[in-house]
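Re: the request from the purification team.
They wanted to know what the chain is likely to look like in 3D before they choose a buffer screen. I agreed to run a prediction and write the result into the notebook, where they can find it.
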Amino acid sequence: MAMDYTFIHPPTLDPVIKNHISSLYRTVDIGPESAQAWAAHFAEDAILKKSPNEIKGRENLEKSIAGSWAPLKSRKHIVYKVFPFGDEGGKQEVMLHGRSLNVYKDGTDGTFTWAARLRFKKVADDKVLVERYTIIVDPTPALEE
């Protein structure tokens, strides 16, 4: 079953970034076999920060996301809204609001809401890569949006 990865955004959001965001979350939700394809959304020297953890470099991001699947049977990211801002020297940023639904191999599940900041760098007219990704998690169960 195909999952929908659309979200609310203003018309000022660059379509290349819009498509990149959709692809980023669609890819990460496939499974551990998609770790390399997910990591390809990032610059070689990208930084991901989540809570106190900071992961540097595409190769380390790939290992981290593959490892994050160890306890999971499935995951689904829902992006509700994207708020674009900034455009300096080919770098654009967005804030996102979303929720993650995880089903664990032991049969339990978990839901949490999150906010994120993504900074992109344009590498071609029709291509961007994530340069920095900061995730702020609210671990309390999310209410229906």
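For the purification team: Residues 15-138 form a domain with the Nuclear Transport Factor 2; Chain: A, fold (CATH 3.10.450.50).
Please add any questions underneath this entry.
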